[in-house]
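It is worth pausing here to work through a concrete case rather than discussing structure prediction in the abstract. The textbook approach is simple: state the sequence, then state the predicted structure, then interpret. We follow exactly that order.
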Amino acid sequence: MKALVYHGPFDLRVEERPRPRALGPDDVVVRVRRTGICGTDIGIATGKYSAKPGVVLGHESVGEVAETGPGVTDLPVGTQVVVNPTFFCGSCAPCRSGRENHCARKHETEAGVSADGLFAEYYLTSRTFVHPLPAGTDRAGMVLSEPLSCALTGVRRLRLTPQLRAAVLGGGPMGVMYASLLAQQGLTGVLVEASAARAEVLRTTLPGLWPVVENLPEAVDRLARPGSGLDVVVDTTGVLLEQALPLLNPGGQLLLVGLSGGSATIDPAWIADNSIQVLGSIDSLGTFGDAVELLAAGALPLDGAVTAEVPLEEFARAFALLGVDLAAGCRTEPTGHLKVCLTPASAGEEL
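Step two, the predicted structure:
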């Protein structure tokens, strides 16, 4: 089978790999139909986020069951499924204390980072991590199940009431999902996106989304009551901590979910004196099934967030749409696309 393999920053290659087989009793081989390019994939491709050389990238996928082990009796071949790529062992100390997203084996099992992922024609997993799709839900937006489950995990860390005013920083797919979930909770808010091209895409493809503004001061002007600031800020960029903190009201909450790295200077006394909560959130924690159901039910109309599908072998063009020039080894101005998916050549073939 063909798979997109990481060899180092800006060095990605489509290679032939053996097709996996269902040899264990609970094994499931999924034929991949589409896999979304995530911010993590961009970070890996540009050297900002570490991955194991030789690993197959990708972790946001939908597909069909191609083969199962003898112990899997409830997933007939051809069943449409979403893959949960966040493996957890269930027996280590973090797993036993309700922190499966920090499983002690994560350093060796993280799909598309430390273990082979889903930018491939086929993927081997186990029954625990495969979610069948309800009938009639074969929509492009179902590929957002994994990132939506991460956003649900983050939202559940916050204390939310409808009277709170919120800003989500970054208008990429994660920002869109956080804004959609907070709006569903009844909060009034805005989405902050500095790129004019992406802001226009947000307005045209997701017209029901929160208003899109260019910067944090504009968000405050638009939302805040006289003499006050923001109650909730979600930073999906990973670089706006210092700018966001001073804009929070007493008792405000700042959720950090971006992985861009860097450093920031903060005043612990100010945080204590103003009862500020600074929280972090990563991966999915007991929310994957909920994300699948929300998307399948159309409760969050996010199909418009998938703005391009590109054949796997044209991966360089797909990354270029998101501001990564692999050939030149540099970042470029993104074209405004939100979620770009890679589709294997075998995706349209009969099982």
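Step three, interpretation. Residues 2-149+284-348 form a domain with the Quinone Oxidoreductase; Chain A, domain 1 fold (CATH 3.90.180.10). The radius of gyration is 20 Å.
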